[in-house]
Amino acid sequence: MEQNSVLSLHQIKRCLTVDLCCNIFTSFTTLISSHLIALLFNLENFQLTNTKSNKGTARKSAHRTPSAVPDIVISLLGTMSDVISVINRNEFWSNGRLEQDEYESDSSSGSEQEHDIEMSGAHDSNGGIDHQDGSIVTPGELITDDPIWMKGHGTYFLENKTYSSVVGTVSRVNRLLSVLPLKSRYIPETGDHIVGRITDVGNRRWKVDIGAKQYAVLMLGSVNLPGGVLRRKSETDELQMRNFLKEGDLLNAEVQSLFQDGSASLHTRSLKYGKLRNGTFVQVPSSLIVRSKNHTHNLPGNVTIILGVNGFVWIRKSSKMDLSGKTTTTGSGQSDHLPGSNNAMSVSITRLEEESSWEIYSDKNDTVTVSVRQTITRYANVIKALAHCELGITEPRIISAYEASMAYGNLGQLIESETMESLGQDVINSEKMRGAA
């Protein structure tokens, strides 16, 4: 209705402009006709006087009459120019007002239309979005039948209607509709701490499976050499690539950069990265791993866990470097009571770094006691229980579920569906009691 009223207003303005032009032209023609009549009357008088008068009088009147004719013509031309200028000014003014009114009406109608589009998800189920932002849809389900929306990831367009192609939640950004899948492959981001598996050894590079759509790449220049030597990689190092990492080896690394096709480039230029040993591997959905500053945690029972952002989890026996890092943190706070302890600690840390730098590519596992193996297995089953209950996997939840699992003596019982649901409920209840939920 508002658009119809705006259009009628524009039509009225155009009609008024046309009437104004018609009135001006009418007055102009009336003025011209009056001047023409006067001109004809003067010419007729000139002919009459020319036949009755003598030559001298006729010459005088003839000399006087032509002088009057140009004055009349000049006045007519001046009147015409004035009328034309008035018409041009009125036409420019009317056109400018019309264009401004049309622009304002278009902008107002556009803003109202955008407002209607934003509100259609909540109030309009026929011409707008049938599902609100964040609602869950299934493949083939109609999202909207309004063709004004653009299709994004997880959607497809058919007969001016947008449908979902995956199971996920509806996401709306301006006029872009997309569906975020509930479960999907890992999408790498720069700075992610990940766990991967070597799949191929190529020309100065390794291909690493990180659970993404494409294999990641670990360049030879992005790893530390045994002994911590800092130098350019040579052909000899290229020939020894399989001595560093070979097919099937697990490693933890950091995403250094992303290529244009979305694949990741990794690096292991730190002692906390490298080949993984003395543990077991667990895979969970990447969406359950909560990003944090630190993804390596020392857990009770002499166990260290690495929570890869890509959903790959490594549980291992705590090494000397893990324990030294923990004692360094606590020892720095006790430096006031123990003079010179920082120097001794730094020397021991340096020696441990040298030893670990030689062991980062070793294939030989350390001796793992039976109790530590059972603890590692318990933590692995606890993480599977959290994933079964679709709970975000964090260090506090792992410890809480581990403490709740101590009531079950049989480790195999922890992977039963009823037991996993019970552990998940215990974790939720403990968080509610602490006020974290």
UniProtKB/TrEMBL annotation:
- Transmembrane parts of this sequence: 20-41
Span list, region Disordered? 98-137, 324-343
Q: Which family does it belong to?
A: Belongs to the RRP4 family.
A cellular component term, taken from the record's GO annotations: nuclear exosome (RNase complex)
Q: Which keywords does UniProt give here?
A: Exosome, Membrane, Nucleus, RNA-binding, rRNA processing, Transmembrane, Transmembrane helix
The organism encoding this protein is: Kluyveromyces lactis (strain ATCC 8585 / CBS 2359 / DSM 70799 / NBRC 1267 / NRRL Y-1140 / WM37) (Yeast)
The biased composition feature labelled Low complexity covers 324-335
The Exosome complex component N-terminal domain covers 136-173
Name the Gene3D superfamilies for this protein. Answer: 2.40.50.100, Nucleic acid-binding proteins
Annotated K Homology domain ranges read: 279-320
GO MF term list: RNA binding
Domain (RRP4 S1): give its ranges.
Answer: 185-257
Quick one: a GO biological-process term for this protein?
poly(A)-dependent snoRNA 3'-end processing
User: PANTHER family from the xrefs?
Assistant: EXOSOME COMPLEX COMPONENT RRP4, PNAS-3 RELATED
For this protein, the record's SUPFAM superfamilies field holds: Eukaryotic type KH-domain (KH-domain type I), Nucleic acid-binding proteins, Ribosomal L27 protein-like
Can you say where in the cell this protein is located? Nucleus
Under the heading Pfam families, the entry gives: ECR1_N, KH_6, S1_RRP4
What name goes with this protein? KLLA0E12739p
